[in-house]
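Sanity check

After download, print the first record. It should look like this:
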Amino acid sequence: MFYVFKRILAVIPVLGIVAVIVFLLMHLSPGDPAALIAGDTASSADVERVRHLLGLDRPLLEQFFSWLWRLLQGDLGVSVFTGLPVTTMIGQRIEPTLCLTLLTITFAVVLAVPMGIVAAWKAGTWIDRTLMALAVMAFSLPVFLIGYLFIFGFSIKLAWLPVQGFHSLREGFGPFIKHLILPALSGGLVYMALIARMTRATMLEVLGEDYIRTARARGVGNQRLLLRHALKNAAVPIVTTIGLGIALLLGGVIITESVFAIPGIGRLTVDSVLRHDYPVIQGIVLVVAAVYVFINLAIDLLYTVLDPRIRY
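Expected structure tokens:
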């Protein structure tokens, strides 16, 4: 219990540092944020109006504590261009990103873990070399290239799947899954390769332990040996890789969403950067950073379930 309490307490200073860095984004960026937002043709009065709207005409500490107080109340600010609350804009875009992330990581894990186990069990054979060669090739190809190849093959040539867009699950499972298959496969191949290589390396290390040889000498079957003895003890680094993959996907779907025109957080980030919409950029960075922190916390807490020795 002390380990859990200690890990939860460690999150607080990390979130505080993240909040300070996110707040300083506007002040550390090159140029005058108000002038960038107002545009090249804006007059001095327009620039001053934008500066007042952003609160940049007040002392820095006053700006920070005012921003922090609003943040603690769940207020991420208001978009300079749309006039909508940042929380509303993120809420409108979070569903496509979450669905794409969950489908991508599910596809990656379902394929990668069995691939890694089989490669480790058949280490040095043609099966091992073939699986790892496929993993290296998938990891080496850029996500956008894989996406365009899938679009060309499955959408343009075969006309099996739509080229782009997103349909909510509320509109029916068929349209929902059809629009997410290609994006999920494009992003999932990279993470599948990463998880498969980590699974193989960890399983190889565990399979060389004395207790595995003892279990094999006692006549334990291959399936039970691999799943109950080896995989369970190799689970900690594999779970770490999967957890970090989820966090990276949430923050790194910009390319996938741009290629497949999915209206998610990635597209919102690109649009906000191009328009210098600083409140939206700050809100997105803060939300993604918080997701990273809490996923790392969840991984740390899961360690105590997989390996009870860690809590001591």
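If your output differs, re-run the checksum step. Summary of this record's structure: The first helix runs from residue 2 to 28.
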